[in-house]
Design a protein that fits this description.
284 residues, alpha+beta, six-stranded mixed sheet, four-stranded antiparallel sheet, 40% helix, binds (3R)-3-hydroxy-3-methyl-5-(phosphonooxy)pentanoic acid
Amino acid sequence: MSPVVGRGGGKLILLGEHAVVHGHMAVAVGVSLGTEVRLHPTDGPTELLQDHPDPRLQEALSRVLPPWGFRVEIRSDLPEGRGMGSSAALAVALVRARAALEGEVLSFAAIHERAFPVERLFHGNPSGLDHAVAALGGALSYRRGEAPVPREMPPVSAVVLDTGRAGNTAEIVAAVAARRPAVDSHLTRLGVLAEEMAERLGDTQALGEALNEAHALLGEIGVSDDELDDLVELARANGSVGAKLSGAGRGGVVLALVPDGPDPLLQAAAARGISAFSCTVPDK
Ligand code: PMV
């Protein structure tokens, strides 16, 4: 029998990470990378097909799937823990696979409600931005406690530069919160940049400038580091109109907009042994 399949997409935050935790707006885009959950019927308890070292994964399965009857295959091309929404993509994929089993087509609100507790297993206090994008794709703005708003954005060529290090989102979010109120004006400005650009995502030059300003602000609130700053510099020196860390920071990835094409930056990254790939944003 063919497996039942559910999918959730990855994301990149254009503007507003950390600010969104404190009630400001963020803008994020879906990427073509994602996570697929395949349920293979079996005559036994529901369990993972492949070994996985993270015990939270088994817990996530038991929250969403029936206790009996499936071998669960997880396929993902999203790097884990790099701010690209891998745990939200998994949560949404699980919820969708379960719905497909029942022949249910879920609204966004239903996906959000069911995926949120799963995402909490991995993230403690998520703003909800990640699984809004995992469920909806495209470009959207998001403010905590409100429905995500789809936004117009013509696809732009981008390069993702990967530090290869996973940041601990819960720890970094807590470190920023501990620096309030000293960083409140920075968080406000990050939110204002998101609000301004949400209305004009087609202006790639202005978006690039906003990304550059956001990276500086993220550095000032203490979530960038030397390696991320170095990757941003590399991007700007090789054709990027704007680059910033994307996600929680202190590791993870840099997103660089390269409207004239990714090749110079990909070549410069390869020459330095930096892991990088090109995509378009939004890409779904
Ligand atoms: O999990 P990450 O690295 O994609 O970070 C999410 C963005 C934050 O604003 C830092 C946290 C959140 O829950 O929105």
